[in-house]
Amino acid sequence: MVSSSSIRFIEAALEATGDRALSYVHHGLKWLIRDDLLSLFDDFRTLSPGSDTLTHNDGTTVHLLYAHGVLPVSSSLPPVLLTIWLHQAYPFVAPIVYVFPATGEQMVVHDHPFIAPSGSAVLPYLQTWQYPKSNLSDLARNLVKVFRICHPYGFIPTSPGRTDASLASKREAIDRLVAALHYDVKRFQAQIEEDMKQLCSRQATLRERTDMIDRALGDLELERLRSKEAAKQMVDNADVLSNWLQSHGTESCLYMDEVEGFEAADETDRCLLDNEAAAQAIDDAVEVLGEALAAGSVTFANYIKQVRCLAREQFFHRAMVAKIQRSNESSSERAIC
């Protein structure tokens, strides 16, 4: 039985005018608001009526009725302190439910599947509110069932039990599914964040190795240019020596073989020298890569990849050298005959 003081308070609030008038837009349905509140207080005696100003998220303020108090959940779980505000467009718009900490030790848990960070309840029942199928008493009963599934203060029932899927109502099945999906999403998000951290770490490592390989390749290119410059200098010195030998008459014949060893006589010999030099340069490059692998500057996979490429290129250079040498030998044999 609802107390007479609660009845008088609700009736007086609904009949108030002026500054104390409520903000309900459907004046002809005030009797429905009264009956729904009385039915709620009759079913849940721990709740009591009140009226105050509510500020919506868009900044608008309204004067509304509310039901405040502790909502019993079960014998093994503590009650939940909450306030149920009746929206100014009630009953066509769902009420607004806020959950509060009961004590300093009973705080609302973070990442609750049915409670937003602001403390407002986010229930499938509220999201699918439809008058006249929905009412305050059924909302409170749904809150009890939801809080048994996931208590706002993080308590776990001593004997939770299991609900037979064939006996569970459609509403309860939806609530349990929403809770399960919420925790699955949180678990997946945590796993995704951990995977992202590992991938970022691997990416940083790969970038470091890429920079090391780029520096090694840069050093090899610099060494190639230095070798090319040294070869050019040797050719120039050979030209100077050849000119000097030629200017000294018959003595130049004694050193002609050495001069020909430094300077290519024709395009074929130049091609032979270039390919032989390229093949020997690749040997040097492979040796440098081996030193980088031993020092840990490059990975084994990158080392094998570079060596394979260099070996393939060296094969063609060696083949060209062999071909030219065979051609020169055939020419020499024909000349002797």
Question: In words, what does this structure look like?
Answer:
A four-stranded antiparallel sheet has the order 1-2-3-4. The chain contains eight helices and four strands; from the N terminus they run ααββββαααααα. Strand 1 and strand 2 (61-71) form a beta hairpin. Residues 160-167 and 250-261 have low confidence and may be disordered. The protein has helices spanning 4-15, 30-43, 124-127, 136-149, 170-247, 256-262, 267-295, 300-336; strands spanning 47-55, 61-71, 80-85, 96-100. The protein has two domains: 4-159, Roll (Ubiquitin Conjugating Enzyme); 208-332, no CATH class. It has 337 residues and is α+β, with helices and mostly antiparallel strands.
Summarize this structure as a short list of keywords or feature phrases.
9% strand; alpha+beta; protein transport; four-stranded antiparallel sheet; transport; Ubiquitin Conjugating Enzyme; rod-shaped; ESCRT_assembly_dom; 4 strands; 2 domains; 337 residues; endosome; ESCRT-I_UEV_domain
Please give the structural blueprint.
Elements: H1 4-15, H2 30-43, E1 47-55, E2 61-71, E3 80-85, E4 96-100, H3 124-127, H4 136-149, H5 170-247, H6 256-262, H7 267-295, H8 300-336
Antiparallel strand pairs: 1-2, 2-3, 3-4
Helix pairs in contact: 1-2, 4-5, 7-8
Quick summary:
The chain is an alpha+beta fold and 337 residues long. It is built from eight helices and four strands, in the order H-H-E-E-E-E-H-H-H-H-H-H. The protein has two domains: 4-159, Ubiquitin Conjugating Enzyme (Roll), CATH 3.10.110; 208-332, no CATH class.
